[in-house]
Amino acid sequence: MEISRKYWLIVFSIFLVTVAILFAMERPPICTCGFVKLWEGEVNGPGNSQHIADWYTPSHMIHGMLFYALGWWLMRTRPIGAWLVMAVTLELAWEILENTPMTINRYREETMALAYSGDSILNSIADCGWMMTGFLIAARLPWKATAAIIAAFELFTLYMIRDNLTLNILMLVYPLEAIKLWQAGG
């Protein structure tokens, strides 16, 4: 499975356009704390979604695994580089949407992320890098192994922080008060 230089250049171009858009949206380049951390472990702290990795990193890796499956389903006759371009476009479009006032407010109102203020540009780009990692893992592993990793990530983050990709989507689309209370520790 080789991804040609042409597709990597397209991916890089999409990254550059996204960074320009996020700057135009006045997103901070790095954490407003003034430094960069590899890992931010405080879920509801001001550093969440500001650094290179956090408790939502497994969700972004799952995005990549699911986008690989989507590529296999919809683009099987196309080069895998085209699948990667599709995955990066979807992930970075989400990163832009996620940092709009509408989505930030939705997170604050309907999920456990009461203090969420959006992502730093570094975090948005890192999230896409983690998605690409998940994509490349899925490209190399049998689908059953990928499915096992997805389940393990979901169960691990559910146990550790009472949140995961499944609950995140559910609470954004169809919020349930019982889940919101449980996530808050009630």
Based on the model shown, name its key terms.
8 helices, globular, 2% strand, two-stranded parallel ribbon, mainly alpha, 2 strands, 186 residues
Describe this structure in words.
This protein has one domain (5-30, 37-183). Strands 1-2 form a two-stranded parallel sheet. Helix 2 (57-74) runs antiparallel to helix 6 (143-161) and helix 3 (80-98) packs antiparallel against helix 5 (121-140). The model has no long low-confidence stretch (mean pLDDT 95). With 186 residues, the chain is mainly alpha-helical. The chain has 8 helices and 2 strands; from the N terminus they run αββααααααα. It is globular, with a radius of gyration of 17 Å.
